[in-house]
Please model this.
Amino acid sequence: MDDTVALARELKASGADLIDCSSGGIAGAATAAQVTRSLGFQVPFAERVRKEAGIPSMAVGLILEAQQAEAILENGQADLIAVGRQSQYDPNIAHHWAHDLGINSRFEDWSPEYGWWLEKRIRTMQGFATPTGMVTRSAQDP
Model:
């Protein structure tokens, strides 16, 4: 990390605008730092680069939920969030996270041919599921 902070300072001086803080992992252990994987496990790298090199940073690493991403930004640990594998799992993650954060609550940012039906879907699920389809109680519960 000391080398990373030093490099980030040099990159900032050379005109870089942002540092993406990842420990690797594209091809397994040969390229990845030996870091225990847990929620937000690479966020401390982004936080340290941001604070010590004085350059905006982007956090990655098992950022799975909107509230988690928002907390990282609000706590000043990073300036941007990159979402990789989770966006492969859910290609509409930005729309879903917007719902989770109370933005775009009626699918107004979706194209009309999808948004109209999805908004109708919300009305159908009211009382037993979230707009993204997470069941909050059984549909048969009173």
